[in-house]
């Protein structure tokens, strides 16, 4: 068994991250497996150097140790580019030239704009461009991202499912998040692509993470099938909420692991408050 904790070094760890790291570490240790650390640092506009060390120091304090040198996604851009190339060759991605404003206008003008769990989905404007139109725009240097063609992709990989240790077996709905961005205009990759490529690269057998990422797993299973990667088991654990029942954000300073370190709280007393990730 191999599990991982994959924080983004864009802020300090809070109690929710500590729980996510604890769940992954605990599962691996109980099965004599390996626990790995991955810095998801592709968004260079938000990453800050001091947070890498801060995260590792908080994990040491929590006594959560990793078994291989931490992976940095910023070192892996070539791997994401070749995965994107493979998807391009399959005809399962397309370039999208829309600006944010155009997408907003598009979703507002279509009465029956498709909706996902987080609001309107991309209406598919650029999916209908011809190959010549795409080539001309790219040749003219029009900035573009690359989107999953969810309909085309589902033809290549029909009848997928994923299994979650807490939430059971789920058929994959390729359209759940619509034609998501797999490579951003500015950084050439995006979360959904990078996480799938790296979970396979790090041979992660059990992907544990918060239930806020549950819907993303529909996209991730689809990408794994397209790219020929193995199917991991999932565990989407409950989220740690603040006193108002709202999920923690990096700005919740009072929930920062650093804050507990400084006020003399022990890691054990933090762990004792954590719900069981499977039954809790
Ligand atoms: N980097 C993501 C986060 O900080 C976690 C991604 C994952 O576990 O799949 O929320």
UniProtKB/TrEMBL annotation:
Top EC class of this enzyme: ligase
One GO CC annotation: cytosol
Record key words, sorted: Aminoacyl-tRNA synthetase, ATP-binding, Ligase, Metal-binding, Nucleotide-binding, Protein biosynthesis, Zinc
GO BP term, example: glutamyl-tRNA aminoacylation
KW Ion transport (keyword) present: no
Gene Ontology MF terms in the entry: ATP binding; glutamate-tRNA ligase activity
Gene3D superfamilies from the UniProt entry: HUPs
Protein name: tRNA glutamyl-Q(34) synthetase GluQRS
Gene source species: Luteolibacter pohnpeiensis
The encoding gene: gluQRS
